[in-house]
Amino acid sequence: MRILVTGGAGYIGSHVVKELLAAGHEVVVYDNLVKGHREAVVGGVFIEADIGDEEKLREALRGYSVEAVVHLAADTAVGESMVNPLKYYHNNVVKGLTLLKAMLEERVRYIVFSSSAAVYGEPEEAPIDELARKEPTNVYGETKLIFERMLEAFDRAYGLKYISLRYFNAAGADVSGEIGEDHDPETQLIPIVLQTALGLRPRLEIFGTDYDTPDGTCIRDYIHVSDLASAHVLAAEALYRGAQSCAYNLGNEKGYSVREVLRTAEAVVGRPIPAVEVGRRPGDPAVLIASSEKIKRELGWRPRYPDLETIIRTAWEWHRKHPRGYRTGRG
Hints:
- Helix 6 packs parallel to helix 8.
- This protein is an alpha/beta fold.
- The two termini are 31 Å apart.
- The strands form three sheets. A seven-stranded parallel β-sheet has the order 3-2-1-4-5-6-10, sandwiched between helices. Strands 7, 9, 11 and 13 form a four-stranded mixed β-sheet that branches.
- The chain folds into two domains: 199 residues, NAD(P)-binding Rossmann-like Domain (Rossmann fold), CATH 3.40.50; 106 residues, UDP-galactose 4-epimerase, domain 1.
- It is built from ten helices and 13 strands.
- Helix 5 links the parallel strand 5 and strand 6.
């Protein structure tokens, strides 16, 4: 297929692009480089543009005869979404609507959407399946849920077929060491832990130690970014074969607390990592663990790197060679 990847120069997007190319697809990478990195794009056609620019979107879709879109362009920081909701509703919802309108105008029939476990909010039970109640506890999760509902409406009204992939915590780096995670500012736990190990941060801040969990810290389901990327390939191919619109969870079905991540990282790097306990962040659920049985059953997805140590080790190799991200060159 000819597939346009919005946000394809970002962390997850660059890994998705690599997996799509490896599977033999033609890829158009569409990214405004506000958060993405040109150096992270390992192949395909690159277009520097914003998804809010309908004319450029239509030109890209039409000019490259795009058949499907993988939509990853979004703002993703939970804490920021609570203090700057305007930014999140505008970028994640309004600009997303511009993308859908351009797809309709250019008769692009398939979209794989980068959604989030944040749509579930504080779950009633774990692991979470796709039918669980959806009550986001933060603006970021709300914007993802709104876009999912837009996709449902566009399917009913216009026949636009979609698969929403509800991620849990993406982590790690491509095993080749070619691409990895480089955010500014960084908000994800594992890279923050590893930046602390490299001396780029004075200490790790543990946000909240009074949650209803065994050690008092938040528990999350971590999934290797390359496993996440492979699911996008399977989803796009399933839509092309005639699959019906639906949503899938993506995780490892096992949760790790902040303290467990810290201990595992210390074992990987071979030394203690300084940490300090601080108060909770608004909008953080205590536990998020996925049930991925549906995508395993229906699409045959299997994680290749399920254990936390491997996830952290691949991330460490990337950060050790690129201590300041892509600015330090490729290792």
